[in-house]
Amino acid sequence: xxxxKIFTLKSIFYTIISLVWIFGLSAIxxxxxxxxxxxxxxxxxxFAWQMAIAGFVIIYLTRWMKTDGWQSFWGTLGGLGLxxxxxxxxxxxxxxxxxxxxxxxxxxxxxxxxxxxMMLLMxxxxxxxxxxxxxxxxxxxxxxxxxxxxxxxxxxxIGNYGPRTAFEYIMVTWTFYVLLMIAYDPExxxxxxxxxxxxxxxxxxxxxxxxxKLLGYGRFGANLRYAIPTVTILWNDVEILAKWGMLKEPxxxxxxxxxxxxxxxxxxxxxxxxxxLRGKKQGMIESSDVV
Length: 291
Hints:
Helix content is 69%, strand content 0%.
């Protein structure tokens, strides 16, 4: 029960390292895209294919990983690879169709991504009615909207956290990019509209609540999966502050001192996660877990 939640140094350690790793992964993804665009733009579409292949191969290989920790770790990387290929496919489409960079700072690929909102909604609708999906937010919507015909929910052990984690990474990233693009659209709301300010406030507030929830998990498998939406929600504020001109993103302006700190944090957190996962054998997590 929430009132009996016990935080330990171990759970705090897992939470901090998971947040640093997911944040570093997202930042390094941005760094890689900017550096390729700046120094070797001809390579970007080859890179997209390489990331797509790597993503599919990594997810496939999680089939033989026996612990949820390793599956979640590699599943996140597989999801990032597929997300790279998705963004670059939109970038390629934008170039082919002559979509331009807008005055308010929206790149062509993100302008196209905004119009995938109905596709996103269709996928999300399926997830709402899929009994095997164990996302806490979807649980909340099922209960509140009384979506299920019965109270039966798929239970039992999950043995395929790799593809589930990859799909979670893609869906969460996709959802919030579309939400930001809708907020920035001057014909709908605009960067300085009440909607964007409310999105900033909600993201900032919910981040701390999710951190509190994250502290309840004492192993890297669950922590990594729950850190994905936690960090992505905070990333909304990073993007909005940059849109308002109050924050200079170091990967956009090629600020190597800051980028070096981010990369170092990612490397250290990766080493700690790998050391922990190699140091013990974990069992699979039951249905009370997220995603």
